Amino acid sequence: MNRFAFIIHPIEVADIARKYPIAARLPDRLVEWVTRRYIKPKIVSTIRGIRSQHDGSEVEGFFIACPLTTRVMLEEPAEQTLPVIIESARVAQEAGAQIVGLGAMTSVVGDAGITVDRSVDIAVTTGNSYTVATALEGARRASGLMGIDLGGATVAILGATGSIGRVCAEIMADEVARVVLCVRDQAKGEALAETVRGRRATVEVSTNLATALPSSDIVICVSASTDALVQPAHLKAGAVVCDVARPRDVSVAVARERDDVLVIEGGVVQPPGEAVDFGFNFGFPPGLSYACMAETSLLALDGRFESFSLGRELERAKVEEITALAAKHGFKLAGFRSFETEAEVRPAGTLELPPVELASEALPKDWPSWLQGFQPPAGMSLADFRVAGPDHMPQVRMPGGSFTLGQQNGREDESPATVT
Question: Looking at residue 8, what is its pLDDT?
């Protein structure tokens, strides 16, 4: 049986505290120092049940815990953190794995896996090729459900100069009208823009999210920041936000305050097999995984013990190749998830709305002036409505979904409304 391993690590000290409760009562820096000094990389679970739909073959895997937090890997020199990641990969090798995946920040440190690959005798991958494939597939599907015309859309990419962001920009520039590269370094952003221009989309560079995001229909978050960059005020009504970053780029406040946007977790995958068991709780329902994990197991399932996704220059051809392999073996995009819960998204459709009548009762001030005096249809109340969508149209909350009223010649449109 082919074997793989995947390296995970605590995103923050709170993750350590779930295993060692005393950590919650100690300063974060102290916990990180103690963890680094006294906890060695080790196997924390065995992964079973991933079975190919192509030939019925099965693989076995292991989760390897690396004791470094995100902050430690971002703040400390790579010369100090890379040896710990390499040690984690050697644990995988000693366990019999033929390929190891670098999870979360371990795929970013130093040269994005190249040094780790040179330091062990097994294949190494970051999983970034399949992460790109699934993130873009998810963004496309979500955009369709939200009524966004992809061909006329503006896409903002946070962390555009990173390995994932670069290839996302290249692919999306062939599909949309406008791409905004959101970067910290203007010069690096402009250099990337020159390689992306010449495709279907116009390409712009921005270092200011407050000005770049409000005009964006789709936001793809792939930065390596430790802070929540995307705040409620940044987003356009009706936008789709695909957050691939770990730690998250999107503030949890968006979920509380902006029910007119759809935030999805990028790259959530359902591997094939009737009894997939990861033996470890990383916040998903049983049987679901991140795409980077899935790429590692997928390569093992196909017998491709090669360093597939490495370094900061991902290849579009690799994204297309891993997509084909996933289809071959039965890996597929899972349902949309938002902040570790199932996102409430329903397929698009139509509904004939009953005729409406005008009344003198004033609606909330944030409603368009043309709707002042709107009277809900029989059996409905104002509580069934909200203003939402790209044009701040009234959205009807009903059991079958949320239906957006249109406007035609200054009055309510009585034609079928789109389910969003």
Answer: 96
DSSP per residue over 368-417, as a string?
A: -GGGTTEEPPTT--GGGEEEETTTTEEEEEETTEEEE--EETTEE--SPE
Please answer whether residues 218 and 143 qualify as being in contact, where contact means their C-beta atoms are separated by less than 8 angstroms: yes
Q: What CATH number is given for 132-267 in this structure?
A: 3.40.50.720
State both tokens at 379: 């059996």
How is residue 317 written in tokens? Answer: 């051809």
DSSP, collapsed to helix, strand or coil, labels residue 137 as helix
Return d(Cα 153, Cα 269) in angstroms, integer: 26
- Token pair 């977790």: residue: 265
- Whether 234 contacts 299, CB under 8 Å: no
Is 158:219 a contact under the CB 8 Å cutoff?
yes
CA pair distance 359, 362, nearest whole angstrom: 8
Q: What was the pLDDT predicted at 354?
A: 37
The predicted pLDDT at position 264 comes to 87
Mean pLDDT by 10 residues, the chain (420 residues): 97 91 93 93 97 97 97 93 98 98 92 96 97 93 91 97 93 97 96 96 97 96 87 94 87 89 86 94 86 97 96 93 97 71 43 36 51 52 52 44 36 30
Tell me the domain boundaries of the chain. 2-129+272-333, 132-267, 350-419
Q: Write down the pLDDT at residue 128.
A: 93
- The two tokens of residue 102 are 């670098």
Q: Helix or strand or coil: residue 307?
A: coil
Q: For residue 10, give every residue at least 6 positions away whose Cβ sits within 8 Å of its Cβ, in sequence order, or none.
A: 16, 35, 67, 68, 69, 70
Question: DSSP letters of 81-129?
Answer: HHHHHHHHHHHHHHTT-SEEEE-GGGGTSTTTTHHHHHHSSSEEE--HH
* Among candidate residues 54, 49, 12, the one with its CA nearest the CA of residue 31: 12
pTM of this structure: 0.75
DSSP string, 21-34: GGGGGS-HHHHHHH
Contact of 106 with 92, CB cutoff 8 Å: no
pLDDT at 380: 53
If one counts every other C-beta atom within 10 angstroms of the C-beta of residue 194, the result is: 10
